[in-house]
Amino acid sequence: MSAQAPAPDVGTADVVAPLGRASVAAFDGFLGRPDESGSVITEERSVQLDEASAFPVEAVAAVDGWGLQRAYVPEVHGGGLGDVFVPMMMIRRLASRDLTVAVAHGKTFLGAVGAWIAGGPIAADMADIVLAGDPVSWGLTEQGRGSDLSSTATTAAVGDSIRVTGTKWPINNATRGRAMTVLARTGDAGPRALSLVLVDKHRVDAGTLAARPKVATHGIRGADISGLELRGTRVERDRLVGAPGHGLEIVLKSLQLTRPLTTALSLGAADHAIAVATAFASGRSLFGRSLGELPTARATLGTAIADALLAEAVMYAGARGAHRAPEEMSLVSALVKFLVPDTVDLMFRDLTPFVGARSQLIGIAGAGGFQKAARDNRVVGIFDGNSVVNLNMIVNEFPSIAREGEQVDVGRVVADFAFDGPADAWVDTASLRLVTKRGTRMLRALPGLVDLLGSRPAASPARRIAAEADRLVRAAGAAPRESAPSAASFDLAERISLCFGAACAVATELASPERGSAPSEVRLTAVLDRIAVRLGLHPSTAASGSAAALADLAFEEAGRARSVSMLDGWADAA
Q1: Rounded to whole angstroms, what are the CA distances from 563 to 35, 299, 305?
Q2: For 141, which DSSP code?
Q3: What does the DSSP assignment read for 265-289?
Q4: What does R_g of the chain's alpha carbons equal in angstroms?
Q5: Omega before 170 cis (within 30°)?
Q6: Is the pLDDT of residue 13 over 80?
Q7: What is d(CA 526, CA 542) in angstroms, rounded to the nearest whole number?
Q8: Percentage above 90 pLDDT, the chain
Q9: Which of 331, 511, 518, 530 has the highest CB neighbour count under 10 A?
Q10: DSSP state of 291
């Protein structure tokens, strides 16, 4: 497949400025259908490259040609980034075709975001690199050091210039990338011992760089997961990203934005899987009836869709929180990053036996990418802090979660989730904090959000979840402070994340233009029933009715070439 020029009838990045909701549809149209041979990404080609562990060169070039990289650069620096949910939706659309392409392209945002937080001249230099379509990687991890960034061994000796020595591995786009934002040691010890340095391969002695080989991975096989060795590489002193010694702080604040963004990858994988499963259930005959007519099959499919809708609402809440409550993002980003990939992985585990042999086969039209999407999603849980890291962050926030504060304005929360609100400017990064004062307003708002449901069917499971959330918050306040969190603390953190998800789902539906409609009732009831089952508040059989109703809604939407979504109306609401 050759790289394609953007088709003029769907819009290109250079005629959509700033990049807003309309650009999501334009990008989606540009990508085309994965079952059509002329599309930018076809399922057949995607699977072929994955089997060969080959980088998707043509697809990434085509996406560059469209100009998706503009969505990674804030408007103030010459890009099109305002509302962070716009690039999240674009990455979701890309990942629904091929998560490897989305990972390869979207990683540049992760590598660049520290410059947007640091500000100053380095941000302008970073913008030039990104807008040129050149990949930027994020050099955080090192072999043998896991997720412990404080043990970073790479050094940066700062004098008239900066001399960087060390090896970063495994890093996405380490070899193919033009630049790498490197976390390096500039001091002996303490929280101010680390700094960030921008290493632009176009501006350094190539002889001081050595690529480490690509790593074979279970998912995203074609991605450039490799390493870079820096052998006394000299860069200009003004290549520091932020002040000396502020590297770890900038990284931790960057993660508050990148963690929600990476969940768009999981949503793309979920979209792919639900489409395959819905089509399979509609077309598969069993005992003289379509699979979709059998009650057990409808309940299984509906349960999977409910998990996908929960993930969608939580992803949306992460974006809204970044703009409307940035001071809470240290906790919210961890809740979002844990819950979404975990929930989508659970969805894949449930759908795999449902789809049967097609879940493992490659040469089946319309289903060959299922096994790839399932493998790819498992990698998402590792990006930007794995599930254990995120659960640990939630545990560390237990005192803040349990701390009593002022009453939450529930109406304000719903308004902040409104689909038709004004377009958001880039995040107020100065308001990001390393620790919250009172956890997240979403947990505190849950009782009030439930009250707004009134006598709607969804109110019944919502009330049970709210009562459980109150118990869990009190348990968090009483939990012992531990140097290493126990299994009980991790379990408590996981349950709190599900209650957070319930609040996100209720707020999203209440803010929807479709609130109170029949589809809205079906969606929200199924999602809350599913959360109640996962919390052990009622048996799975109690949720089978709402799950089957959700499956029926999915079949109706599929007949109109649409999918069930908590975000119906978002693209048209502005």
Answers
A1: 17, 17, 10
A2: -
A3: HHHHHHHHHHHHHHHHHHH-EETTE
A4: 23
A5: yes
A6: no
A7: 11
A8: 86
A9: 530
A10: G
Determine the distance from the C-alpha atom of residue 93 to the mean position of all C-alpha atoms in its chain, rounded to a whole number.
Answer: 12
Triad 254, 255, 257: Cα angle to 5° = 75
Reference 447, options 503, 526, 392, 399; nearest CA is: 503
Nearest to 264 by CA among 97, 91, 107: 91
Among all chains, which residue has been given the structure tokens 């998800």?
501
Residue type at position 48: Q
260 in Cβ contact with 84 (< 8 Å)? yes
Structure tokens at 333: 């980003």
Pairing of strands 285-286, 289-290: antiparallel
Alpha-carbon gap, residue 124 to 138, rounded angstroms: 18
Please confirm whether the linkage preceding 353 is cis (ω < 30° from 0): no
CA within 13 Å, CB half, 253: 24
> Over the stretch 65-117, which tens digit does the pLDDT of each residue have?
999 999 999 999 999 999 999 999 999 999 999 999 999 999 999 999 999 99
CA–CA distances in Å: residue 207 to residues 204, 511, 564: 9, 56, 53
Q: For residue 370, count CB atoms less than 10 angstroms from its CB and return exposed for 0-12, middle for 13-18, buried for 19 or more.
A: buried
Which of 390, 556, 419, 374 minimizes the C-alpha distance to 485? 390
How far is the C-alpha of 415 from the C-alpha of 412, rounded, in Å? Answer: 5
Amino acid at 73: V
Give Cβ neighbours of residue 360 (< 8 Å, ≥ 6 apart).
371
Residues 6+ apart with CB under 8 A from 240: 122, 158, 162, 195, 196, 197, 198
Angstrom distances, CA of residue 57 to CA of 106, 213, 219, 262, 570? 14, 18, 18, 21, 32
Handedness of CA 408, 410, 416, 421 (dihedral sign): negative
- Quick: pLDDT tens for 308-366: 999 999 999 999 999 999 999 999 999 999 999 999 999 999 999 999 876 676 666 55
What pTM value is reported for the model? Answer: 0.95
